[in-house]
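Researcher: I'm preparing a figure for a lab meeting and need a structural model of a single chain. I don't have an experimental structure, so a prediction will have to do for now. The sequence is pasted below. Please return the structure as tokens so I can convert it later.
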Amino acid sequence: MNGQNRADISPGIHVQIVLKKDQRTGILTKGIVKDILTKSSFHPHGIKVRLEDGQVGRVKEIIQ
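Model: Understood. Here is the structure written out token by token.
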């Protein structure tokens, strides 16, 4: 599942995000969602979240 819909994302789920510094390379970072930062229900580049370790990025994949 991609991370474009806010309804699919909730605190505590495992996701892969792309950090701002990795947007050119597309390197993904795994983590657990702590906070959802995007207010809109949909974002074409992925919903922005903060992971439990403090890193911020856009969700590219939701890990089941």
